[in-house]
Amino acid sequence: MSQSIAVIKGDGIGPEIMDATLRVLDALDCGFTYDIVDAGLGALEAHGTLVPRSSLEAIEKHGLALKGPLTTPIGKGFSSINVQLRRHFDLYANVRPAVSFPGTRSRYDNIDMITVRENTEGAYMSDGQEMVDDGNTGISQIKVTRKGSERIVRYAFELARQNGRRKVTALHKANIIKTASGLFLDVAREVASDYPDIEFEEMIVDNACMQLVMDPYQFDVVVTTNLFGDITSDLCAGLVGGLGLAPGANIGENAAIFEAVHGSAPDIAGKKIANPCALLLAAAQMLDHLGMNDKGTAIREGIRDVLEKRRDMVTPDMGGSGTTDTFAEALVEYATARA
């Protein structure tokens, strides 16, 4: 049965890594058809808006999108494209695994953890932001709701249970931000009581950042609010070699968008040296989401195999002498041999 997905190739290196990723998906015989839609700088030039209505309608129609990195122009009048997409489709769960791969420039081995970040409220809401006092004072609200907290914490526990994870750690700043962060912590404690089979831990976010650097192995699934999740998930990416290995899933009730979380890297666009791993790993998350776990596993195992055995095919940022295309070629060969 064919599955249609919306594909946003993205800006900068986006089209290069997306083409590489689609080659691998096709080699795995996933049965996908691709609806290529616009967003980002290309959409702004062609349609006068960063996210055309037709693109939103395509994502809504398919309920699924694979997205390359997008550039939001710097300056007033442009809101984050990613935040806009998450709020429009109520993609409340941002799921970012951090997993060690061989041959990477990282300080740790055998890291395997997941950050589950609330994606639609908290410090990133545009509501309540204003400049006052003749532009000398900026005001921004942090809004956390019981509903938002309950569903993200429950998502984290369900994810842990489904994947045989042992512990969920809630990160907070309730000692200082007693209302917004305090509400999140209270709800996390309530939800945790429904999962006696999974260990629950709570940790102040600044201490958690220190602990992640000193002993990341104590963490398994981390759940937290929007801003803290943004910061700590990037920290976790640093534990395994950087954002080039950092995929992200944005999950809602009726839609899901899977993405490489790094930027569009315009300085290397067109040079065919961009590392496609983050988007490939996001595609693996998408396959898991669709129940095609064996194919998602094939991508992850293929990346591991290429990094170990095909260094000449690996991109320079990973210590290889290859290109975006040769990395994809090596994975296609792996998928073909595995079939």
From TrEMBL:
Keywords: Oxidoreductase
SMART domains cross-referenced by the UniProt entry: Iso_dh
EC top class named in words: oxidoreductase
Lineage: superkingdom: Bacteria
Annotated SUPFAM superfamilies: Isocitrate/Isopropylmalate dehydrogenase-like (SSF53659)
PROSITE patterns found in the cross-reference section: IDH_IMDH
Pfam families: Iso_dh (PF00180)
Protein EC: 1.1.1.41
GO molecular function term, any single one: isocitrate dehydrogenase (NAD+) activity
Isopropylmalate dehydrogenase-like domain ranges (all copies): 4-331
Entry similarity comment: Belongs to the isocitrate and isopropylmalate dehydrogenases family.
Protein name: Isocitrate dehydrogenase
Organism: Halomonas piscis
